Amino acid sequence: MVSQLTTNISPDVYLELERKSETRNEYLKGEVFAMTGASLKHNLIAGNIFAELKQQLKQTDCKVLVSDMRVSAPGATLYTYPDVVVVCGEAQLEDKQFDTLLNPCLIIEVLSKSTATYDQEITFGYYRTIESLTEYLLVAQDEHHIAQHIRQPDGRWLLADIRGLESRIELASVPCKLALSEVYDRVSLA
Prior knowledge:
6-stranded mixed β-sheet; 14 strands; globular; tt1808, chain A; single chain; alpha+beta
């Protein structure tokens, strides 16, 4: 998130404006924020994750979606565009526009300097209210590191830090494994 555009608008007004907009904007409790373009590193990492998940989930009922799929938290207090989203089974959508997903099981965000705090603290707080969400990954751009948050049966969230190119992460929400060497393929951290 970079700049705040408007304040105190309803979710319905936001969706009406967003569907006409040529740029993507996120919504948080009445405020609309313009989304900026992503860096080369950001796009490479998100693309690598998408490709790995898509390949591994081919024979399942899970679908991997990229950053143009809007996700809504309950109560329409948050509308956001995660970098990668996975939904298994039938996608539940907010309305007949078919552009706002309500039931992701996995959300992945590639962190940037301008969004790190927002993704780690604010959006994760709202994402935790999505009943179907069982896993949230935060992927660093400046080091080989993934923070894996997994919802436990009692509702608590467990954090695992996976570091180093030789590491692999086994996902809890879908039958996939991600090698950090693949996640960071062709990505220069210098």
